Amino acid sequence: MLKRERLEVIMRQINLHNRVLTSDMVQLLNVSEDTIRRDLQELSDNNSLIKVHGGALSKSYQTTFDDVNVYAREAKINIAKKTIPLIKDGMVILTGGGTTLIELVKQLPNNLQATFFTISPFVAIELAKYEKIEVILIGGLFSKNSKVTYGSHVINQLSEINADLCLLGTSALHPKNGLTDTDWEINQLKKTMLHSSKRTAILCISEKLNTTQRLKVAPLENINYLITELNEADDQLDVYRLKSLKIL
Fold this sequence. Notes:
This protein has 248 residues and is α/β, with parallel strands linked by helices. The chain has helices spanning 3-17, 22-29, 33-45, 73-83, 99-106, 121-127, 152-159, 184-195, and strands spanning 19-21, 49-52, 55-58, 92-95, 114-118, 133-137, 141-142, 149-150, 163-169, 172-174, 178-181, 197-203, 215-218, 225-227, 246-247. The strands form four sheets. It has a seven-stranded parallel sheet with strand order 6-5-4-9-12-14-15, with helices on both faces. The chain has a three-stranded antiparallel sheet with strand order 1-3-2. The protein is globular.
């Protein structure tokens, strides 16, 4: 594989998953660790990503999610608009973090009356702009990579919530492997959030469909709604059609 092609693959992975691990890129591209480190350094020098110990982060994930830096923003806005009808007055809603959730919050009706629990300070800041929404930011250790709170204290708090709806972004979704992630701490958070909610909606751009990461969060059977930017009748979604899973 040419260097240019490697850099393109790395940036695609960054845009899709917000972060990459050097070890994963070594396996994916079948090159040495030193090669990946040099590639990441070059992309960092070009201001394409942020190099960190063991890998790299998306620039949009390391900022306050300015619109100009959000990957596939139009698709995420479309997803956000399709999600809004699930949110009703009086609901208790639990959310993760990420750019798709930020776009969702920006689309909420101004007169919505609801309670939102979130592990994301960025989501909490956007929610705080709504006068009738009660915002509860779950505190704990703060992940510099994922920009959410985590740890045993956060998991204990999450386990005490009985939410009507859980709204989550995802790193990967696969018809057989279900919902998966790369980070152990985030994986544990998502599992707890699913268990603490009556219904769960996964917000997922279509590029993340049919992909799998190393850690399993939940099978498709544990998800109630799959929301993508695609038309719900799109052929790409056929393998996700289950009795228990409504596609929007």
